[in-house]
Structure formats: C-alpha cells, structure tokens
C-alpha cells in the first residue's frame, strides 16, 4: 500500500512585483509535486530557482498567485495544523536578547507545549543539539553554527510530524553538517517526514529518498534519488600516460571524449559504448593506459544538465 | 485547551516577549530617565516663578508624561512589525500554530503594557514631586493619566497599522502626522464650518470624523486648574478610544494578513 501524501502542491504559480510600479515577474510556474509520509524529500535548485518562495508558500509566509498547496491535508493558509509542522528557515534569526533556553521556551509556548513537559523538552533539545553548556547565554554571543542549532531545536520543540528545512547545512562546518545529516536520518527513523531545500547535491545523494529539481521556477525532474542515479549515463574514466597530442584530438573527435589534464597524465571520460574503440586507439598510439574506472553520472551532473537545458 | 484559550495563551506569549525586549532595551531607559528628570525639574522651574508655582510644576510634569509617552510610542511602535519582518524573526514565529492576527495583537499588547509601565514610573515621579511641593492632587489628575494611557494606546495602534505595511521612516512620518492632526481636528472642523466653500467644510468634517480626535483625551487643563471632572468626561472618551483602536487593529491585521513576507 502506498504511503499517504503529506505535502501536495498542485499547479502553483507565483508572481512578484520587484519594485513599486514595475511589471510582475513570474517566480513559480505551475509547479506540482507530492511528498509522501516518512520520506526525506529533497527540493533542489540553483539560487533564485524558487525553492525558498515555494517553502514560504507552504509555511503561509507568502501567498500563491494561483494553484493549491496542502500540508497534512490542510490548506496552507490555515494555522492550526502547524502544531504538527516544524520549520527551519535559511539563516534563521532569533531575538538576540534571549538566552538559548528562553528562546526554546518561547517557541514551545507558541506551540502550546504545557509545563512541566516544556521544561523537560527544552532541556532535552538543548542537549540533543549540543547547546546544553550555552543554554543560559544570550543568543547575541552565539556563533552562526550555534544559531543554526537553535534553529533546528526550535523546529523540533513541539515534536512535529513534518519538518521543513531551508538550506539546513548552510554556514556549518563539516562536523555541524554531519550532525544535521545524522539528525535528518534520525527523524526518518522516527517516522517523521522531512522536506529539505538545498543546493548541496552531495547531501541530497546521501540522505534523500526522493527529489524534485526546480530550475527557473519550473520543476524539471521529480522522482526517487536512486532511480535518477541508475538512469544516469554510464561512462568510463581512462587515465592515460604519454598520450600524443594528435591521439588526444582523435579521441575528442571520434569518440566524444572529454579530456582533463592530471599533470603527468591525462584523464579521458568516454561514454560506455565508445570505451573499446577509444582504448584500441590509445594502445595503437603507443600511449600507456594507467586505469579504467567505470563512472555513473552523479546527481550533480544530472542537475547541471537540467540547468543547462534552460539556458 | 479550547481554541480561544490557546489563542490567548499565544498572544500572551508574544506580548510577554515584547515586554521583555523593551525591558532589556537601553534606549527606553534613556528616554525614561530624561522624562523623569524633566518632571523633577518642574520643581526647580516652579521656584523661579512668583505666581502659580504649583501649576507650572504640574504643567511641566504632565507635558513631559505626554511628550515622552508619545515619543516612546512612536519610536517603538513604528518598528513593531517592520523589524520582525526585516530581521526575519517572524519566519519561525509564524510557522508555529498562531495566526498573523495573534502575532500582531500580541506585539501591540506587549508594547502598550511597556508604555503603561513607563507611564506608571513617570506618574510616580509626578506624584512624588507634587507631594514634595505641596501641589494639590485631584481626581482630575487621575482622569488625566487614565486618558493619556488610552491616547498612547491609540498612538501605538496607529503606529502598528503603518508598521504593518511600510518602512519605519514613513510609519514615523505618518504616525506623527496623525498625532499632530489628531489634536487639531476640532479646530479644523470649526474652521471648515466657517468656510464659504462647501468642499472645505465637507473635507474638514470628514477629517474630524475619520482621524482620531485626540483632544478628547486631553484633560491636562482641567487637572492643572483643579477643575471638577465628572465620569462622562473620561468614560466616554475612553470608550471612543477603545472603539477607534479596535477598528485600527482590525485594519492592521487585514493588511498584515495579505502581505507576502520577503
């Protein structure tokens, strides 16, 4: 039995007016996608593609010009259902005159978490995001990474069923990024649904179950991450030494190879169907084959080709 | 918890946080300090006068309470919503189960509580300096403070309305304009009535009806001269203020609900 849809976006279009009296600009063009229960959904696109606008509409911070969006079966213009929703905006800002503990207590009150559960939950989350030591320090002294951790904690303070994260790894060091990745995976283990806006494709490959790629306000692809990778073009990277210049030109012309200098050697990426012919050509020229590595197109390459198509 | 009780609890959380922000703001302490100094300096000014020293003392005191009260109301009110949107603190708050109306009303109530708290401090200084100078304190003084509290709440409401859709500079300009014109609408209406132009008469009448009649809250003259004040002198203006404020807040919420937050 297929899992129920938690987020449904249907034919969403959004126009904005960049300035007073200026013509309206379309930033979302008839986009549709669905996020299923218990999955980690990556919403991927370059800067300015419309990711944050989509998320703002889902969070009720902006209004759609047309189309429909629901979360947990409720229209996004409602507010009551948000007791089941957590949200981490990109580069979150908080009241810097509050301490970490006061901040989380404030958000827990907004979500209707009663005392004494609130006190316990705040302490538990401060511990979980590694801020227990700084809990009673005002936020104005927190580093960017610490603010991001407060952002994660406030998104989870009411134990939501769905969590929306806008560029959650933004501004974090490698340890912070790993912590967030682990946290997202842990949320999935707990049965939560995670919607993640990002442009870091490595993170998508590592944690997301499904992905939608948005470019210039239109959805270009939507599907299972592994399916994308499996469908990606198979090729091989040939690392060659002592390759004559004319053979290099030959590889490019006849086999469509893409050459890259590695210093002493040359790397030639050749599609799978041309590997045998390219190797024969290399051997005939007297060059040395150091290695042959099969290569599957990464999400990044698929993403780049989607972006290129729109140029 | 019922829907209404939950909504009130969220409004209270926002209001409490707004008060906490103000209590931790150095700017408001500075303004309050100068207001109290001005009220106390009334005693010195009274000493310099041969006649009506007590009246001068209380005129200066009540003037300081109104002036600094309005300055604080406008200064903080114009940033009330704009700063939240500009700093994007509103993103995490509005993603929680509260409506924009809850948020705006909570911010408004928090600021009004802050201003009333400051009025209480200024009022205490006024009473202390009056008692020390043996100046009379009458029910008219209590009515003056009560109506000034209503007027300041109304000014905060107007500032909140402008803050919901424009920049702090424009909001300050508009709110100050409403405050100044609000104290002149009765004169405008009377001038219009004497005009030969029907349009001027109509425009002056409309301004008097649409803009808040802030002179309705001014009992400074009655208090300073020890004139008697009957209940209708302050109950009716208080009801008028509450009604006007409700309309202003409805308009502010309606505008804020429609805004896209960038």
Fill in the keyword field for this structure.
heterodimer, A: 311 residues, Rossmann fold, Alpha-Beta Plaits, 14 strands, 34% helix, elongated, B: 262 residues, mainly alpha, 12 helices, 0% strand
CATH architecture of the largest domain in chain A: 3-Layer(aba) Sandwich
Structural class of chain B: mainly alpha
Structural class of chain A: alpha/beta
Biggest sheet: strand arrangement of chain A = 6-7-8-3-9-10
Largest interface comes to:
A-B, 35 and 28 residues
Order of helices and strands of chain A: EEEHEEEHHHEHEHEEHEHEEHEH
Give the strand tally of chain B: 0
For the record, the CATH class of the largest domain in chain A is: Alpha Beta
Number of domains as seen in the coordinates of chain A: 2
Shape assignment of chain B = globular
> What fraction strand of chain A?
25-35%
Radius of gyration of chain B over all CA atoms, rounded: 20 Å
On the 0 to 100 scale, the average pLDDT of chain B is 89
* Total discrete domains of chain B: 1
Q: Supply the number of helical segments of chain A.
A: 10
Topology:
The complex is a heterodimer of chains A (311) and B (262).
Chain A: E1 5-16, E2 25-36, E3 40-44, H1 51-58, E4 66-71, E5 74-75, E6 85-88, H2 100-110, H3 117-128, H4 144-156, E7 162-166, H5 174-189, E8 193-198, H6 201-207, E9 210-215, E10 218-224, H7 225-231, E11 234-241, H8 245-255, E12 258-261, E13 265-271, H9 275-284, E14 288-296, H10 299-309
Parallel strand pairs in A: 3-8, 3-9, 6-7, 7-8
Antiparallel strand pairs in A: 1-2, 1-4, 4-5, 9-10, 11-13, 11-14, 12-13
Helix pairs in contact in A: 2-3, 8-9
Chain B: H1 3-23, H2 26-48, H3 53-77, H4 82-86, H5 89-94, H6 100-132, H7 139-163, H8 168-182, H9 185-194, H10 198-210, H11 220-224, H12 231-258
């Amino acid at each position: 039995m297929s899992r129920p849809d938690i987020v449904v976006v249907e034919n969403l279009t959004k126009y904005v007016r960049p300035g007073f009296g200026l013509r309206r600009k379309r930033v979302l063009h008839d986009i549709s996608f669905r996020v299923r229960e218990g999955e980690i959904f990556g919403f991927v696109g370059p800067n300015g593609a419309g990711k944050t606008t989509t998320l703002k509409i889902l969070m009720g911070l902006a209004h759609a010009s047309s189309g429909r969006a629901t979360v947990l079966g409720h229209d996004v213009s409602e507010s009551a259902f948000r007791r089941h929703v957590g949200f981490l905006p990109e580069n979150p800002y908080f009241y810097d005159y509050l301490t970490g503990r006061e901040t989380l207590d404030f958000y827990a009150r907004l979500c209707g978490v009663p005392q004494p559960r609130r006190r316990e939950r705040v302490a538990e989350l401060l511990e979980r995001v590694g801020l227990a030591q700084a809990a009673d320090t005002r936020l104005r002294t927190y580093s960017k990474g610490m603010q991001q951790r407060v952002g994660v904690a406030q998104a989870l303070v009411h134990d939501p069923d769905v969590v929306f994260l806008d560029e959650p790894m933004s501004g974090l060091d490698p340890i912070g990024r790993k912590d967030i990745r682990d946290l997202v995976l842990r949320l999935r283990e707990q049965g939560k649904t995670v919607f993640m806006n990002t442009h870091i494709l490595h993170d998508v490959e590592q944690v997301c179950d499904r992905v939608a790629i948005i470019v210039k306000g239109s959805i270009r692809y939507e599907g299972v991450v592994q399916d994308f990778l499996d469908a990606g073009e198979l090729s091989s990277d040939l690392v060659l030494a002592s390759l004559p210049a004319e053979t290099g030109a030959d590889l490019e012309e006849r086999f469509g190879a893409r050459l890259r200098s590695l210093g002493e050697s040359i790397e030639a990426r050749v599609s799978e169907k041309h590997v045998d012919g390219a190797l024969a050509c290399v051997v005939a020229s007297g060059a040395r084959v150091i290695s042959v590595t099969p290569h599957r197109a990464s999400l990044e390459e698929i993403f780049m080709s989607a972006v290129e198509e729109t140029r | 918890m019922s829907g209404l009780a939950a909504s009130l609890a969220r409004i209270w959380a926002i209001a409490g946080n707004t008060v906490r922000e103000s209590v931790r703001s150095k700017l408001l302490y500075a303004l309050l300090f100068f207001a109290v100094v001005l009220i106390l300096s009334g005693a010195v000014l009274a000493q310099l006068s041969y006649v009506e020293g007590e009246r001068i003392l209380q005129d200066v005191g009540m003037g300081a309470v109104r002036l600094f009260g309005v300055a604080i109301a406008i200064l903080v009110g114009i940033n009330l919503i704009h700063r939240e949107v500009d700093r994007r603190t509103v993103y995490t708050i509005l993603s929680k189960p509260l409506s924009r109306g809850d948020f705006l009303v909570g911010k408004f109530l928090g600021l009004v509580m802050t201003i009333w708290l400051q009025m209480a401090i200024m009022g205490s200084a006024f009473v202390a300096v009056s008692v020390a100078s043996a100046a009379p304190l009458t029910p008219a003084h209590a009515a003056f403070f009560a109506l000034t509290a209503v007027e300041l709440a109304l000014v905060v409401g107007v500032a909140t309305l402008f803050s919901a859709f424009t920049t702090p500079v424009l909001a300050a300009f508009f709110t100050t304009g409403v405050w100044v014109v609000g104290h002149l609408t009765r004169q405008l209406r009377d001038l219009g009535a004497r005009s030969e132009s029907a349009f001027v008469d109509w425009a002056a009448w409309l301004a008097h009806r649409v803009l808040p009649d802030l002179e309705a809250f001014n009992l400074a003259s009655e208090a300073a001269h020890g004139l008697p004040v009957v209940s209708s002198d302050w109950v009716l203006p208080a009801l008028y203020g509450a009604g006007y404020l409700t309309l202003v807040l409805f308009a502010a919420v309606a505008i804020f609900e429609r805004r896209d937050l960038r």
